[in-house]
UniProtKB/TrEMBL annotation:
Highest taxon of the lineage: Eukaryota
One Pfam family hit: PDR_CDR
Annotated transmembrane regions: 386-403, 423-441, 461-486, 498-519, 531-550, 646-670
Record keywords, A-Z: ATP-binding, Membrane, Nucleotide-binding, Transmembrane, Transmembrane helix, Transport
Name of the protein in question: Oidioi.mRNA.OKI2018_I69.PAR.g8865.t1.cds
Entry's family note: Belongs to the ABC transporter superfamily. ABCG family. Eye pigment precursor importer (TC 3.A.1.204) subfamily.
Source organism per UniProt: Oikopleura dioica
Coiled coil regions in record: none
Membrane topology: Multi-pass membrane protein
Boundaries of every ABC transporter domain copy: 47-290
Stored Gene3D superfamilies: P-loop containing nucleotide triphosphate hydrolases
Amino acid sequence: MGTGEDSEMKVGTVNYAFDGGENSEKNETSFGIEGAAGTSKRRGVQLDWKDLTVTGTQNKQAKTILHNVSGSAKPGTLMAIMGSSGAGKSTLMNTLTRRNINGLTITGKVEVSGVSLGEDISHISAYIQQNDVFIGALTVEEHLRFHARLKLSKKSKSFQEDKIKEVIRIMGLQKCAKTVIGTPGLSKTISGGEMKRLSIASEILVDPPIIFADEPTSGLDSYLASAVCQTLKDLARNGTTVLCTIHQPSSEIFDIFDSLLLLSMGRCVYLGPKNEAKTFFQSIGNPCRENYNPADHYIWETSVLEGKEEESKTKILKIWENFNSSNYRRQIEGGQVESIKSDPLVADVTKEAKANKANWFVSFYMLLWRALISQYRDKSTAGMKFGQNIGTAIIVGLVYLRIPWNANDNPYDQTDVFNINGAIFSAVCSFSFAYLFLVVFSFPRMKVVLRREYYDGLYPLFIAFLTESAAGLPFLFAMPFIFLGIQYCMIGLFPSWSAFWAMYLTCIMIALSATGYGYMISAIAPTIEAANAIAPPLMVPLLLFGGFFLQSDSVPPWFIWLKYISWFYYGAENLYVAQWRDGGFCGLSRQTNILAGFFRAAAQNASECAPTSFNDCCEYQIKDPLISFVDGSYVLETYSYKEEHWWRNIGCLVGLAVGFRLLAYCILAFKFRASNR
Ligand SMILES: Nc1ncnc2c1ncn2[C@@H]1O[C@H](COP(=O)(O)OP(=O)(O)OP(=O)(O)O)[C@@H](O)[C@H]1O
């Protein structure tokens, strides 16, 4: 893991001592981690930030969020960044990691061993975010394998597998290595502590010299919180520079840290060894009471208290001035590495991290592997998807049941024309809704993962989007086949293979268009809930203007474009054409007798019609299209459906399926790029 054995070494222009703090003996709550401490120490890097001033805008007014903040984090130490809410912890962390800094004006320098890396700092550091984001269907080991393949792609498989085993051991994840991670709220999950350790494990696969952890203890009970901090401490002891924002740690957890950076009102009011903070506060007349959690004391003393704002601010500014004139501040400045153009270690690590990044082919392969697992592993979800489709097909089939279903034995009559048209309409609608919601329920969840990994630079977004769509194809090909098979048997659609395949192809295209629209809605919607809420109102106009409820001519001109982006419009026409173009039926409606007075002639002809086969029937057909459909072409004519539109419709459906996906991708890419990292 490490590259050096020395406990003291020179990097850039300074010597770093792996002091490891006074808590370097093993803590009982460290998951029994042999830990990084069990392996040889690595050469570390020092992170310096010099005179950082960060300005944002609030209510159209410039607001200084960080005031001239300077500091250093040394290799081998675990630093706690603390402060009351709004003190500037996240802003400092974001500035150091170059994330979430859109709209902020930053002056000052951030350097790694004296080298200003800019966005390349992401190649030399890991960022453990507050919220753990995983693909719930993967096991712990598979999740790590996915990360190893993408982050260490130039290393051999055996190296990657060894690395996976090593981080599993270091993070104490052996017991749950083969366990499915799970999705909170949807399925059984590994514990919160295990999730946090898994987050850390996926970041330390590449041995980053710097680790940033944003509130790693949030949501964990005190035992797990302590264990997670101890884990970070173990990593630090191995030579890693670890910075960690933390909210009100218990005294036991606070004890684990080596150094403390205390922020208040965007100012650094203390930075130095954790244990010396007590002396500092005592020296400025704010001593910590005996048996009182020092962390609570420091935060309390540097908080702007409600009702005592002015008093608090004056007090904080005084602490800040005291700190600025203290030895601690001078030591920080004296201990910072002088700015240099390059450092061999930093250059090597950055180069290796870039070189190890997976190429497009590996990214595609791994993303497809993960997408297939995530879409098909969960048997209950996969079963639900199939069940929902089969269930809908059976219900529609029962409503429009025709027995015997074979049109040769049971020729269509006029009632059948209406019923079959109704069945086709129901099928298109239920099909469209089912497929659209399939995506709307799942993709927003996936979007969160893609966003996180996109910012981590794991892979290009378009490959992830492509594989996500590709992984759904087996389902989109299988389901229409089953759905249509059931409909054919129960409703008695036109019995020819050419009609079946034509309908099958159309159904696939409808499913692809509906899912494409689902991706687009999911890309637009900011949250899962929003996606579910806006999906129906965004789908209904397409249904309305799809030609079922409004004749094309009567569509208001300003809505006409909706017709052209409606897969209902193209899909329904093709299904009707497939059903009726080959002649279809003929005969009289069973209800026609009721209208005997009005349609006397028709009724008389009908009595002569005793069809025993399709052709027999057609010989006796009624020629008056006002009261009956003579054959399938009359049905198509009545609804203005045209056979010659068949391939045009297929082309348009392909266009919609691709177009909606392209739009979804562009929206996602734009939103990811425009939003903060
Ligand atoms: N982009 C921004 N533009 C303007 N003001 C901002 C911006 N980001 C943060 N702030 C403000 O800067 C201050 C510090 O915010 P920051 O999120 O860094 O604090 P914090 O210490 O992390 O707080 P918390 O513990 O509540 O997360 C807050 O008053 C916040 O409203």
